[in-house]
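Let us work through a complete example step by step.
Step 1: write down the sequence.
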Amino acid sequence: MRLTKLISISIMPDFLREVEKVAKEENRTKSELVREALRRYIADREWEKLTRYAREKAAETGIKTEEDIQQSF
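Step 2: predict the structure and record it as tokens.
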């Protein structure tokens, strides 16, 4: 049984050429590039969620500056 799953995506021809160029330059497969891009996208989304949560909590507690954070300890 495969550990990976095969998916299909649609991209514009110009973008595909760019992906193929980068893959060749970096000696990587297109799959590797797409996996990395998706990992980064997911990590960025998680970071955004965390920073949004932190901003909300800071606003609730009156924290406005880094100094306010230091004083809370």
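Step 3: interpret the result. The chain is about 70% helix and 0% strand.
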